[in-house]
Amino acid sequence: MKRKAGAFVGICLAALLLVGCGKSNNSSSSGSNGTTTTKKTDKFQITGDAGSDQYRGVIENGRYRVSKSRGVGVQQDANNMLNLKNFDIGMTDISKKFFSTQSYIFQEGQYLSTSTVEKWLGRQSKDNPDGLNPVDNGNGSNRNPMYVQQIGEQDYMKNNNGKLTLAGMTIGIGMNQKDYYQKQQYGPTFTQSIPHDKMVAQGKADAQKILERVRKIDGVPNNIPIVIAMFEQAPNDSLVGGSFYAYAVSNNGTKLGDWKDLDIKNVVFPATSTNSVPNSNDEHSFENFKDKIQNFFPNLAGVTAQAQYDGNTLKEMNVNVTTQFYSETEIISFTQYVAQAAQSYLPNKIPINIQILGSDGKTQAFLSRNAGEGKFESHILTGN
Amino acid sequence: MKRKAGAFVGICLAALLLVGCGKSNNSSSSGSNGTTTTKKTDKFQITGDAGSDQYRGVIENGRYRVSKSRGVGVQQDANNMLNLKNFDIGMTDISKKFFSTQSYIFQEGQYLSTSTVEKWLGRQSKDNPDGLNPVDNGNGSNRNPMYVQQIGEQDYMKNNNGKLTLAGMTIGIGMNQKDYYQKQQYGPTFTQSIPHDKMVAQGKADAQKILERVRKIDGVPNNIPIVIAMFEQAPNDSLVGGSFYAYAVSNNGTKLGDWKDLDIKNVVFPATSTNSVPNSNDEHSFENFKDKIQNFFPNLAGVTAQAQYDGNTLKEMNVNVTTQFYSETEIISFTQYVAQAAQSYLPNKIPINIQILGSDGKTQAFLSRNAGEGKFESHILTGN
User: Fold this and answer.
1) A111-154: pLDDT as tens digits
2) Could you tell me if B255 and B366 lie in one domain?
3) What is the pLDDT of residues A292-308, one digit of tens each?
4) Where are the beta strands (DSSP E) in chain A?
5) Domain check: are A115 and A172 in the same one?
6) What is the number of CB-based contacts under 8 A between chain A and chain B?
7) Best mutation site among B337, B338, B367 for testing chain A: the one with the most A CBs within 10 Å?
8) Within this chain, do residues B242 and B273 fall inside the same structural domain, yes or no?
9) Contacts of A356 in chain B (CB under 8 A)
10) Interface of A with B in 260-279 (CB under 8 A)
11) Domain that holds residue A80
């Protein structure tokens, strides 16, 4: 998973932005290495650069084409916003397996509306026949759990002679491992665990239903690939977000191909007894880094990290260092020191981002290293 | 003023960090282009890289050698922390005119203690004969204002065969343009303006006194250059911090050389009637950028910038963009769009940093361009 957006260029794109503004300097005439092939129409423009490993996005009349179900995710994941973050990024990552960032343009989901998604996420009932969750049978010991927590849609477009055409779609389905409920409003919250195999089976059935419904939506062709990606929501009290555990693709109609399992784990450093890390070498590396960093000032620095594993292989690490600074020169010196310590101690070969935060929680400096690079690049942030 | 810390390497430095940790991987054996000449002693280590345009700092027994008057600045500038930021960075910038980042090592001030600085910043009295501010004559219409608001010290060291030696010093003196006072505790705050020429004259007299006192301090040689830099504090309600307006150097003893005036102005964009900007072209550029950005989402984005001018020449710009995001893909698309708009509209040839903040005030993405570069480099931040 690559978070670094890279550099964005493209004469065409910069030119698009310049439309309607004769006074500004066109600074984009040099240094372009973009391979943008899009053309301006009255209908849409595109963010980003085709040469990047990030998708370009769709702008319509100078405004981003936001999701038709915008905000549903925020609402569904209000108790652990890291779920939403991982859900969005993970869907994009899986999509890259099928839709290359060079050929496809990303569009926020335009076919599932807020009301549709909310209906589907509800319980099945006379009033809501499309509810994917089982009928309400009360809050007794045999309570039917809420299995499906969120549904996301991403559209992958092609530019056919200036006309954006839907060429692929990814549907993410977030499944609960915990069912939270209240017996009365404002009462205490009860928790029911959902067995993993039950969650997986239920998810497969829901995936098939959703695929069939999506194929029927006006504007969704029968013959574009639709990827269905299954996400396991992390518990509300988890320090990490959930992760995708499987995906399947339907190339045509309502037939879904074989399920492919994923073994992605999100973890937090430092490891604890209830929160272990797949690889103890990484744990040692982090602990050494932390020891070196946290005593730099007389006041102790907090050092934590979120990391993602594919199986036992560390894929990326996002480090947060929080301390109290008494001057700008302390920020600069600390950033230099963190860059050295990170290079010496943190695992090689993976992309690492480090944020240095002041005691007010604001980012003071930012360090990053791409996969395969030795050095960290540092930025001291100001004006915050 | 260059804020980008650049990349930090150096086999020697990485090796220093590795002392006492046999298990970690030495990832520094490749890619080194540092020109570090320091050697390890039992006494000190150094942060950073001699090849950088930032000073390296002093580490003692694994801990940063903090200022002997650490925290006094935070206390003195509590009503406008931007003063402190500009004070620290500005002192370093002026120091670079005299002490090259290649040859000199930065050390937080070790010769003026908290108690000394607090005494000097106080009013002159029987109990405090060293107070630089005039005697208390009450809070009537002829009240003696508080002229001196803060005093900072930076030491510039040379490494002589593994021994750090004081080779230069910069003293910053922060002068008030406004004198704030209360007639009774917890009462309303009154303000008295200090005429500019009076402030400058008083500052020159204080500079001479401070130079004489500093030369007498044990460990401060008579023949090292001491730079005295004069800072005008911004008012408490200012959206920008103050700036340095003059400096002079004493190469020997207590004789201070000619004063050299500076014309540094810190401004905020968008400009307002009470807060103008020296160059209207820059104002247009910023407004175009802002217009393009703020309507990207249905919800309006806030777009502001802090910039620094030397005379009428824009030197650098720090942009803050704040908006509400509903998904990670929105953050990515917005960052791409901001990169394009910044390249098209913002002034060329100066270093620009852009922070993209969520509605919770946390940094979500960061873009930067060095002076002379065309493209912005983007980073999507996670794990925050």
Assistant:
1) 999 999 999 999 999 999 999 999 999 999 899 999 999 999 99
2) no
3) 999 999 988 999 999 99
4) 6-7, 44-46, 56-60, 63-64, 105-108, 148-160, 163-175, 178-182, 189-193, 226-232, 243-250, 260-261, 264-269, 302-310, 313-322, 352-357, 363-369, 377-380
5) yes
6) 322
7) B337
8) no
9) none
10) none
11) 66-262
